[in-house]
Structure to design on (90 residues):
């Protein structure tokens, strides 16, 4: 198990990025959350099988022409016990 905090900038708001991240998380059986920031960036945390988390991080910008990630930072986080879903935060 691993948990990552991910911060992305670029064309990531107003293009369905949060829903793309949620679908990708669900495909990989991950839990966590994603939200827009006032700065125009998006941040998220994902948790699950280490290989699935790595696949998620690698494929965040794939599969859509509208999303353009210019910068992505990824850091390790402590795992959260009992988390059961991935959700979009406001």
């Amino acid at each position: 198990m691993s948990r990552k905090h991910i911060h992305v900038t670029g064309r990531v708001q107003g293009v369905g990025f949060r829903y793309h991240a949620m679908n990708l998380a669900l495909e990989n059986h991950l839990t966590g959350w994603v939200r827009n920031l006032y700065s125009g960036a998006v941040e998220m945390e994902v948790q699950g099988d280490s290989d699935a988390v790595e696949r998620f991080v690698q494929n965040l910008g794939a599969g859509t022409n509208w999303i353009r990630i210019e910068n992505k930072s990824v850091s390790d986080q402590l795992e959260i016990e009992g988390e059961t879903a991935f959700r979009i935060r406001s």
About this structure: The chain is about 25% helix and 40% strand.
